[in-house]
Amino acid sequence: YRNKEHESKKFEVGWVVTFGPGYGEVKSLVKQLNNSLSASPLFSNRETPALGVVAKRAPNLRDILFSQRDICLNTGRGSVTTRCTPLGTRRVGRPCESCDLMSGETRLTIGQQSMNCAGGDCKSFNLNYCAQCSICNKAYIGKTVQQLGRRICQHRSQIQALSTSTCINRDIIDDTNTLAAHAIEHNVRTKAGFNSLYRFFILKYEEKEKLTISEQFFINKFRTYRPYGLNTSNPISINDRLVLQT
Predict the structure, then answer these.
(1) CB atoms closer than 10 angstroms to residue 40
(2) Which of 20, 28, 214, 234 shows its CA 20 to 30 Å from the CA of 11?
(3) Where are the beta strands (DSSP E) in 31-87?
(4) Burial code of 20-29, b = ≥16 C-beta within 10 A, e = fewer?
(5) Which SS3 state, helix, strand or coil, does residue 154 take?
(6) Taking the CA of residue 41 as centre, how many other CA atoms within 13 Å lie in the half-sphere pointing to its CB?
(7) For the residues 72-100, what does the mean pLDDT come to?
(8) By the 8 A CB rule, do 138 and 182 touch?
(9) Nearest Cα to Cα of residue 80 among 121, 137, 128
(10) d(CA 29, CA 53)
(11) What percentage of the chain carries pLDDT values higher than 90?
């Protein structure tokens, strides 16, 4: 069980249990165990109890049927790049600014190349992603170890810095601001315009150490270097590629 970083810990170890038969018995058992542990020298000085009950709802019939349907039809969350907040659902707190950019599709096609998406939403992380322009279909391949929605916000923030320029110098375009520069090429100079211009796809989940290698693979596969695409540089240098090949 993971507590949020800004909240104080209520207990050290969570005992996950579903509501229903046995829930009260588990609470009583945890209370007895905490009393026994607090009497021992190892736990006597702790301010928080060692054990706690984490209650969760058990899957109902609707969850089971929809899960089986998604598996049979291959339409589940495992293959769709979707929203973290479903349409029609009221979100607690600040609205997510990246939900509307999720493609909602199971397959990415760029030119004559295509592939199945890995699935996930704007809260997914440790992944390779693709941002595709909805006007010209040019694409950018990137990687992120943080949440995809946060990485999208970083791309979108660059449009303010470039929106005042009437002509963008090609020398200042890099992988940080290439999406914003391409948006301005289509005369899109606002964050709202950025949101309607791009669609994001999750390509692959990978370990942090391998993200750069898979990013280079997808860039080569879809040929997303400028002017064919929106990438401006090689994630892996020539020397690094020679080392990998040997």
Answers:
(1) 9
(2) 20
(3) 51-56
(4) eeeeeeeeee
(5) helix
(6) 0
(7) 68
(8) yes
(9) 121
(10) 10
(11) 37
